[in-house]
Amino acid sequence: MNDLYADIGFQSLNHHGESLCGDHVEIVNDNGSTVTVVLADGLGSGVKANILSTLTSKILSTLIHADLSVEAAVSTVAATLPVCSVRGLAYSTFTIIYIKNNEYAEIIQYDNPKVFILRNGENYDYPTEEIMIGDKKILKSKIYLEENDLFFAMSDGCQHAGIGGKLNFGWKRENIIRFMEPLECAGYNAKTLATILVDECNKLYGGKPGDDVTACAIRIRKRNPVNLLFGPPSNRDDGNKMMALFFSKEGKHIVCGGTTASLAANYLGKKLVTSLEFGENGVPPIAKIDGVDLVTEGVITMSRVLEYAKDFVSDNKEYEAWSMGRDGASRIAQLLFEEATDINFYVGRAINPAHQNPDLPINFNIKMNLVKELSDCLQKMGKHIVVSYF
After folding, report:
1. pLDDT digit string (tens) for 106-138?
2. β partners of residue 289
3. How far apart are CA 368 and CA 352, in angstroms?
4. H or E stretch including 70?
5. DSSP 3-state helix, strand, coil percentages of the chain (rounded to 5)?
6. 330/1 Cα distance (integer angstroms)
7. DSSP for 96-161?
8. C-alpha–C-alpha distance, residues 304 and 296, integer Å
9. How are beta strands 4-13 and 213-222 bridged, if at all?
10. CA distance 115 to 217
11. How would you write 288-322 as a 3-class SS string?
12. Distance from C-alpha of 357 to C-alpha of 334, rounded to nearest angstrom
């Protein structure tokens, strides 16, 4: 077992005029050590394609993750998919990337554009083996992982982008690789890389995709823990215990909340330096404590982080706002979404009387739900989350 981690992100576009995407990505993750990712592309578009791709990806991810053979998994899918009444076919292409103990990746591909890998900023020409399962020609590969490896899986909507319009023959695989290569060293997370690729496809389609488009990126990186302290403990006598556990953890440390910051400063024997400069987006000012990486206000700031997190796991449209921001919420988002692989929350259950005013927005009264919702979003990003309450 090593200290590598698979950062996984994907983005999709619906076929123009369709309310559902005919592609589906399913991820099964065992605390970041063994991961199965399946990208399936259903026949056609719309509801039928969505059903085919969803069934395919869910069945394959479950069976492959349970160490069933490829032959058994593919045969099960073939026997399970409903037959299209119009075409008389049950058909979904797929790409499987199975990462074992963060040591190696097995890639299994059927009729989707071939996965490409960027290693040291260049396309890595990995070996493939052809096998036949029934009438299906399957490509299999095994690659031992290196830090900063980048895997890209796509549906054929990516390569169809621009056909008959900006590009006569679509966006060829080699051109997609050339487009993504310079971004390998930019440090973008997997979700952002997938979003960049899909956004470029949308431009080539003129904003009206003629096919469902999905890109899935996997970046292999070293584990990076981040610890976040939010609120004082319900029992004052637990203050030193909470602080000792929090500051003993490896990684960066974020302290959220005025009272919490005062407790942290007292525990460290350092001065709490405050500011009155609000950010342009209305997020309260940050503070400083020597020995703490980031000190912010509590509920208002964390509520904004939750907004960013919900957007990140869906359309990722707010990326520019928080990735470039210097306010407390943006900086927390940068640390949690982009830098962290493992996140430890230390949450105090003390009730702040100032938050009990019935005239205030309801989110002032739901600190526990805020932490739960944020944890759920971070888990969807593939982060390993531990929450401790005091």
Report:
1. 999 999 999 999 999 899 999 999 999 888 899
2. 272
3. 13
4. helix 70-80
5. 35, 30, 35
6. 33
7. EEEEETTTEEEEEEEBSPPPEEEETTEEE----EEEEETTEEEEEEEEE--TT-EEEEE-HHHHTT
8. 12
9. antiparallel
10. 10
11. EECCCCEEECCHHHHHHHHHHHHHHCCCCCCHHHH
12. 32
Q: Is residue 86 pLDDT above 80, yes or no?
A: no
Computed on alpha carbons and rounded to an integer, the radius of gyration of the chain in Å comes to 23
**CATH code 1.20.1250.20 for 4-221:** no
By CB neighbour count within 10 A (0-12 exposed, 13-18 middle, 19+ buried), where does 208 fall? exposed
Residue 233 pLDDT > 50:
yes
Q: Are 382 and 32 in contact (CB under 8 A)?
A: yes
Helices and strands in the chain: count of H runs, count of E runs: 11, 18
Paired tokens of 30: 């065992």
What is the pairing mode between strands 384-389 and 342-347? parallel
pLDDT digit string, tens, across residues 184-230: 888 889 999 999 999 999 999 999 999 999 999 999 999 999 999 99
Report d(CA 155, CA 211) in Å as an integer: 9
Q: Which helix (H) or strand (E) holds 222?
A: strand 213-222
CATH 3.60.40.10 range(s) for the chain read 4-221
**Max Cα distance, the chain (Å):** 73
- Identity of the amino acid at 82: P
The dihedral region occupied by 93, where left means phi > 0, alpha psi between -120 and 50, and beta the remainder, is beta
Q: Read off φ and ψ for residue 37, nearest 5 degrees.
A: -120, 130
